Amino acid sequence: MARERREKKSDRQQGELSENVVKIKRCSAVVKGGRRFSFAALVVVGDNKGKVGQGYGKANEVPPSVEKARKAAMRNMVAVPMNGSTIPHTVKGRFGGAEVILVPAAPGTGVIAGAAVKAVCESAGIHDILTKSFGSTNPVPLVKATIEALKKLRTKSDIERLRGVTLS
């Protein structure tokens, strides 16, 4: 059981992008000759300057699954509005059975989050944030819920432009 739930965390620099392997799952299928194993990898990629993406890849070996997930993460990059080293406002994200609340924090607070949410926030370049997750503890929906929350962020200038007013 412990082998099936292996977690591997590694940071690799890909040019200016950092890659973080959040979870590697081993799956088995019973076939005529015994068991056939395959692997699924969840990878978060970010530039530490406000862009982050997640990818999920499956293959018969670990390295190809991580490579597929990395390529998918690079295709799914989203821009994250920043307010210094934190986010502009409190936001809630939901995906499947997972719900994540992200709250801006004062400088020096750090990233207060679980492993999956922390990987996304650090890859995006957020250094000060408070988070709380509800529901599922599965890293796949937690990462997707965090990305959904980050997509909902708006800066003060964006809101002024959309509403056509000046905020104080």
From TrEMBL:
Keywords associated with the record: Ribonucleoprotein, Ribosomal protein, RNA-binding, rRNA-binding
Highest taxon listed in the record's lineage: Bacteria
Coiled coil: none
UniProt domain S5 DRBM: residue ranges: 17-80
Pfam families: Ribosomal_S5 (PF00333), Ribosomal_S5_C (PF03719)
A GO molecular-function descriptor: structural constituent of ribosome
Gene3D superfamilies: 3.30.160.20, 3.30.230.10
Transmembrane region(s): none
Subunit structure as annotated in this protein's UniProt entry: Part of the 30S ribosomal subunit. Contacts proteins S4 and S8.
Described purpose of this protein according to its UniProt entry: Located at the back of the 30S subunit body where it stabilizes the conformation of the head with respect to the body.
Entry's free-text remark on domains: The N-terminal domain interacts with the head of the 30S subunit; the C-terminal domain interacts with the body and contacts protein S4. The interaction surface between S4 and S5 is involved in control of translational fidelity.
Family: Belongs to the universal ribosomal protein uS5 family.
Listed NCBIfam families: rpsE_bact
Protein name: Small ribosomal subunit protein uS5
